Structure formats: C-alpha cells, structure tokens
C-alpha cells in the first residue's frame, strides 16, 4: 500500500485526513441547506404567484365585461339638448425627462411639470363641461385612459431618460389619476363617469409588443385594474379595461371605438397619418362598425369627425424630432356627443401655458 504524501513530499497526517473529512461534511451540509432554501423560495414564489393571479382575476372581473350603453334621458321635444362629455387622456409619459435644448422648440418636461399638466387636464375638462352646460344637459362623462401614460424601460435609453422605474411610476400615477377622477365626481350634476382603458405600447415588460397577450404584460393594464378596484361600489363610476387592445362603448345611439393606435402602420409619407388611419378604420369597421374612432400614439391632435387622434402631454421631444413630427402645443382631445345629432363641439384641452 502506498502512503499518501502531503504537499511537501512527506506523509499526510491524521489531522489532514480529519480536516478533509470535516470540509467535505461541511460542503455537503451547505449544499443541502442551499437546496432546502431554494425549495422554500420556489414554493413561496408559487404561492405568491397563485395569490397574485387570484387577485388579478378578481379585479379583472370588474372591468372585463362589456358595459351597458349610456342611456338617453331626454326623449321629449322640450328644447333640452342632451350630451355626453368625452375627453381623451393618453401619451402622458409622466416620468420622462425632456431637457431644454434637446429640440429647437425649447420644450421642457419632468414629473413636476407632468403633475401640473395632469391637474390642468382635469380642471380643463371640468371647465369645458361647465361651459357647454349653457346649451346642453350634460350628465354623462366619458374619460378615455388611452395608454402611454408612462414611458417605461422598453429601450435601454429609457433608463437614462426617465426619472423613475416602472413600478414606482405606477404608484405615482395611481394616486394622481384617482384624484382626477374624484374631481369629476365632485360635480353634483355629473351622474355617471365611464372610464374606458386601453393599454399603450410603452408600459410593457417585454422587448417587443405582444398582440394576443399584450394586456397581461402591460403595467398600465395592471394600473387600470387597481383604479377599478379603488372605485368599486361607487354607483356613479364604471370601468372598461378588458384584455383586448380595442375597447367599444355605446353612448346613446352611437358606437365608439377606442385603441391606443400602435397597430396603425405609419412609416411617414406626405399624406401624414390620416391615410393609414383611414385604411385601418375601414378594416376595423368590417369587424365592428362604429360611428366614431379614438386613437392616441402619434402625439398629434387631429379630429376629422369620425376619427379623433389625441395629442400628447409630454409635447415635442427628441423622439418627435427624429421621426420628423410636426411640433404642437401639449394638448388633449375633448368633444361632446349630442344624444340625437352625434359628435359636436370639438376642442383641445391645453395642458401647458
């Protein structure tokens, strides 16, 4: 039998054997402990995931069913004109930072300016409702949350151009949109507030947009479920935030279609976005014919009657400059829906001085 040598060429001592055995035992113990800890961690994650799915499933039940139409109340010819007030809120990009000098327009934007702009949106909405009550009985309010309320981190550059990470941004948005909806409910003449929710292409946790499963990968869609849960039990507020990229609502005798707009294929052209929009609307009308279509995404305020394209809250930035967009004031869309005659009184809501 050969004797085992130590590192210096001599025989290994019994102490060396004991130390080696102890090290092996300790290593096996640490491996076993790590395996147990990993098993507990996986089990906890599975329980948390099941709990989260249950919560989201419960919350989704509040928002996934088609809403009953907004009903006409004035059916006699007594001279009263009844209308619903519709406003579009999209392309907020609340956590994005735009510094002076990034574009020739001198636009500047940050969360502080974003908060003031959001307050101005809701106060402008209330002002327009009060103004039009001189000629209309306005009892019904429709608010569209149309996506890209946040910029998110879908591109590496966004980590440098945003002031907060997606989860923190959600928490920031939640309290402020709740306050805005509360301000609409403060109006005693408003009987119903219908909130229609479409997720955008920025607030996602995937590299590329998902079409069939876009909602469940959208931070904004989760935000909408939170908002609906917050107002649950209030008979004056209803939410539509299903998993589709397209939402539909009937107001009086008119069918309205809402979609963020990122499924419209526009790659420039002298005709602007109206040509691809008209083509998209014609195709979507085959699936479900609607009287009016509402979009965001393009940061341009356009209202052709049947089609409304929302402006933006962030305004002109480096991205707008890169795609050769036309600079315009930060603004959002507003219009009335006359219960007998349809769309009327179209107006921007300016959200900045």
TrEMBL record:
Residues 1-17 have a biased composition (Basic and acidic residues). It comes from Labilithrix luteola. The lineage of its organism: Bacteria, Pseudomonadati, Myxococcota, Polyangia, Polyangiales. Residues 1-20 are annotated as: Disordered. This is Calcineurin-like phosphoesterase domain-containing protein.
